[in-house]
Give the backbone structure.
Amino acid sequence: MKSINSIPTSKIARAKTLLKTGVQVGGNYTVHYTKKILGQDVSQNDLDKENASAIYDGLKTMKGSALKVAQMLSMEKNMLPEAYYDQFSLAQFSVPPLSYPLVQKSFKRSMGQSPEVLFDRFEREAAHAASIGQVHKAYKDGHAYAVKIQYPGVAESIVSDLKLVKPVALKMFNINAKDSEKYFQEVQDKLLEETDYQLELEQSQAIAQSCAGLDNVRFPSYYRSLSSDRILTMDWMEGQHIQTFAKAHRGTELAHRVGQSLWDFYMYQMHLLKKVHADPHPGNFLVDVENRLVPIDFGCMKQVPENFYTPYFALATAEAQNDRGVFDALLWDLEILVPSDDQATIKYVSDLFHELLSLFTQPFQRDQFDFSNPDFWGAIGALSKRLSSDQTIRKMNGNRGSKHFLYINRTFYGLYNLLFDLGARVDTKSFARYMN
């Protein structure tokens, strides 16, 4: 893939890139509807493909939080038109890397010397490029390292980027600007944390130590002396991305084994550590030659406070779902029901979430769950499609739910999708053996 020699870093330059993308999308609409008026054969899917491509091209030029948004959206298989999902999925694996002169410049600015001085050998071509940084393979004293280098200007542009996309997000999700700050602040805080590689190093070491006893899970070691706030050095881990592994082994015993490890890894964090890896997209997991799960990125970790954890998981129990009084009380605790709701709205929201949770919490209702079950995913797809066109929801204020839902729901939805890709059948209670 062709490398890039510059990234727009100033507020004005990044705003111009978004404006240029918007103009192109507007032009696509004009051409589409002109063809339609002239009686030419055009489809909504063709328009979606053109717009998705234009938007992704603009975001990959900007990198940073703008591209991270595309990566996050690509995890929502049932929430996006297919053309957008296909295009935004490229943010997980297919991002143009920085040119090597720019890599050298960024590395030297952060570490005080060039990579060729610090390492015996440093591969000029990136092994992997993502939204916030790219990884190069390096060698020192016969040992192989993965060196993650943050793109220039990424950390400094997060606040201004979010201000640019905020009006669009408010409209898309029907959020009242007056009460939206807690959600945007949560996203901003998490994105800023992801640009702090010293924090990521500490989180990575803590998780590796805490989860060392989990079966079939392996972690790299991290090296403080070879890292900084913008450079992160860890062991080079051999293996294939979990999505590649899943394509070759879907539904097999090997896939069940990896899926079980993935489930236990997440449940252990969620229920024991109360702090969880909150970026479960395929690019963050490898499967090594011994078919062990290898998590490789801990930049996005979410603390789960007790006052959210308790009612959140209580909603997944059959007891709560069978007692609407208890169920509604938990909705109040989680800020899903709000003081401004009238009785009709309370009933509508309660019924809606009861239907949603009766479906999404099925894995927690059983001792074993098959994530390849087509009925389960068909029901999710049908419900998503119905809700996306529900006019009552469109008119309703979207400012609902604790801010903690943003990353916890994202975590579970991403986990479910990984387990679906694997076609995994898991013992949902097996993680309990690690809890003593």
